[in-house]
């Protein structure tokens, strides 16, 4: 039996569409990602699945609890873990008081171990308002997992964490996966999806437009590369199976100032999905005056995959 069974789930806020017609299942022990850019509908889906807001249409069962019925929602919350995207706490309570409260609602199998793992154990007697934002998120993670639930729903679990803590959290979630905990992860990070999820549903403008297994995702998130060079650049130098959206700008007046005697400059930008070594090799053939390398936004990548309009018959704008 599926751990989550969602059928035509729809949520409108007045006239504003949150999500529409979502249908998917999540198998026991699966790590399923809801991958989408800002505003795609991840939080709406997750809050509706957690019974925090009623669906406008459709139905969903989470661990076989029907979220449309109040009694079942209450029972579900004892068996399911939930990490909200923006956890909010009563800041005057200590971490210890918060955990005692949650233990009274849903049991506590392992908060001590988790607190130690996330280095929160020495902060327990302090009011939560004195915690750093990162410590608050980790405390919320402890709350989500303390009762050792069979299924945990996480909304943007790595947002607001520094890179090393993100890595620590991913390692923890990977261990949970090996323990057969079912995870449903809302994320706008392709890196999180690639590293963590067995399968993702791609959300765009409130619609689930595709499903991809981990093998159908790239090895890692693509990079936006932009460099400025004083050398001539061949228009065909970068298009390859690893580079796309290549733009070569020789006409930018700010860059090619021929009056001060400096050679004209060319700005080159592209999205890159290949290996670091191949990139560095290609860049090393130019005299580089400026270089910016940053992770590409998911929205750009989805446009690359699916174009600017959806072909689902719904005619939904991007
Ligand atoms: N309380 C609300 N009232 C009206 N519209 C809302 C409300 N919450 C969400 N929406 C709308 O629903 C759509 C989906 O938003 P949602 O927050 O679920 O997306 P998201 O993928 O979680 O993005 P983000 O990461 O930015 O929260 C958006 O168009 C948003 O404007």
Automatic annotation (TrEMBL):
Pfam families assigned: ABC_tran
GO MF term (any one): ATP hydrolysis activity
Keyword terms: ATP-binding, Nucleotide-binding, Transport
ABC transporter domain residues: 4-230
SMART domains: AAA
InterPro entries: AAA+_ATPase (IPR003593), ABC_transporter-like_ATP-bd (IPR003439), ABC_transporter_ATP-binding (IPR050763), P-loop_NTPase (IPR027417)
Cited PROSITE patterns: ABC_TRANSPORTER_2 (PS50893)
Family from the record: Belongs to the ABC transporter superfamily.
PANTHER family attached to this UniProt entry: ABC TRANSPORTER ATP-BINDING PROTEIN (PTHR42711), ABC TRANSPORTER ATP-BINDING PROTEIN NATA (PTHR42711:SF5)
Protein name, entry field: ABC transporter ATP-binding protein
Organism listed in the record: Halocatena pleomorpha
């Amino acid at each position: 039996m599926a751990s989550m069974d969602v059928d035509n789930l729809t949520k409108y806020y007045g006239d504003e569409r949150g999500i529409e017609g979502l249908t998917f299942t999540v198998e026991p022990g699966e790590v399923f990602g809801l991958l989408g850019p800002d505003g795609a509908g991840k939080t709406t889906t997750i809050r509706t699945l957690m019974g925090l807001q009623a669906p406008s249409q459709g139905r969903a069962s989470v661990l076989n609890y029907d979220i449309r019925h109040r009694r079942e929602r209450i029972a579900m919350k004892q068996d399911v873990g939930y990490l909200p995207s923006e956890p909010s706490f009563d800041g005057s309570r200590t971490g210890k008081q918060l955990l005692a409260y949650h233990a009274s609602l849903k049991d506590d199998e392992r908060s001590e171990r988790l607190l130690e793992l996330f280095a929160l154990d020495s902060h327990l007697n302090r009011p939560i308002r004195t915690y750093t934002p990162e410590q608050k998120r980790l405390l919320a993670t402890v709350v989500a997992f303390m009762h050792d639930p069979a299924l945990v729903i996480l909304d943007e679990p790595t947002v607001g964490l520094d890179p090393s803590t993100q890595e620590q959290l991913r390692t923890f979630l990977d261990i949970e996966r090996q323990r057969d905990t079912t995870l449903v992860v809302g994320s706008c990070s392709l890196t999180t999806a690639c590293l963590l999820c067995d399968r993702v549903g791609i959300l765009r403008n409130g619609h689930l437009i595709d499903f991809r297994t981990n093998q159908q995702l790239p090895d890692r998130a693509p990079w936006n590369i932009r460099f400025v060079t004083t050398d001539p650049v061949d228009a065909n130098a970068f298009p390859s199976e690893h580079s796309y959206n290549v733009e070569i700008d020789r006409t930018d007046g700010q860059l090619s100032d021929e009056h001060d005697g400096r050679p004209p400059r060319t700005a080159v930008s592209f999205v890159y999905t290949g290996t670091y070594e191949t990139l560095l090799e290609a860049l090393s053939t130019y005299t580089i005056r400026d270089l910016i390398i940053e992770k590409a936004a998911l929205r750009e990548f989805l446009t690359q995959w699916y174009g600017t309009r959806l072909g689902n018959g719904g005619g939904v704008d991007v």
